Amino acid sequence: MINLISENNMRFQLSIDGNKKVHDSYRKTSAGKGSYDLIEKNLEKFKKLSNNIYMRATITPDNINICETYSHFKKSKA
């Protein structure tokens, strides 16, 4: 799998809709729990495989402060 990713310059996109509280209120697992911790765990794995990781957010009234949301993304991706 690692060879496939590196040989094909694959990119990954993660959706994080802000901090843990905001994200978990919108994004739940099939078991009904917030998915923020799972995303953070998988982000660490993806960083070991590729530098082509993109993050996106769905803007809602709870994360409308773009500067705060971007700052959180930047800390998560670092």
Fold and architecture overview:
This protein has 78 residues and is mainly alpha-helical. 50% of the residues lie in helices and 10% in strands. It has four helices and two strands, in the order αβααβα. Strands 1-2 form a two-stranded parallel sheet. The longest helix has 14 residues. The chain is globular and about 40 Å long. 12% of the residues are buried.
Quick synopsis:
With 78 residues, this protein is mainly α.
SSE inventory with pairings:
Elements: H1 2-7, E1 12-15, H2 20-26, H3 36-49, E2 53-56, H4 66-77
Parallel strand pairs: 1-2
Estimate percent helicity. 40-55%
Model regions low in confidence, pLDDT < 50 over at least 5 residues: none
How large is the radius of gyration?
13 Å
Number of strands: 2
The helix count comes to 4
State the strand order across the main sheet. Answer: 1-2
Distance between the termini: 23 Å
What does the overall shape look like?
Answer: globular
Element pattern in H and E: HEHHEH
Q: Classify the secondary structure makeup into a structural class.
A: mainly alpha
Strand content: 5-15%
Q: Average pLDDT value?
A: 83
User: How is the main sheet built?
Assistant: 2 strands, parallel
